[in-house]
Amino acid sequence: MASDKEKVSLNDEQQSAAHCTENAVITAGAGSGKTMVLASRYVWLVTVKKYCVREILTLTFTKKAAAQMYRRIHHMLAEIAGEDKGINGKPARKALDEFVQARIQTLDSYSAAIVRQAANRYGIRPDFTIDEERCLSLARDEAMPFLSPCGIIRQLSSFTRKKVRYP
User: Fold this and answer.
1) Pick from 77, 80, 38: which is nearest to 59 by CA?
2) Per the structure, how many domains does the chain have?
């Protein structure tokens, strides 16, 4: 991962993903530059396509990745806002002013927010909590029948006995 002081340098494939004109899902392995591509995409949507911060939804899988994404995007916008007094600087400055409204979060937190908004329609309380232990148990119980024929049971059963921690 590039440090915050380095300029953004994307290869052709990354640039294509960052400047895609439609909704996009970015998938790649660890250390491949996903955070930089998504941050570049966010900044491009704000500075070139003139989207408002509240119009962009950025989802990640972990809280750590969401925090990193938030910092990276904020830093890139601040850099443009400070250096570019022209056409890209103005929307970058506006985005910084509105950045408190940025929707950069985990898929789980976004899904929970949707459920909370409509909780009364489904007969559940909007202040519900998620029982992580029960979720893990349900996932294990549902997955075991599918994994049994593959000979993965021994490996998975030792994994499920360990305490799983969520960041």
Assistant:
1) 38
2) 2
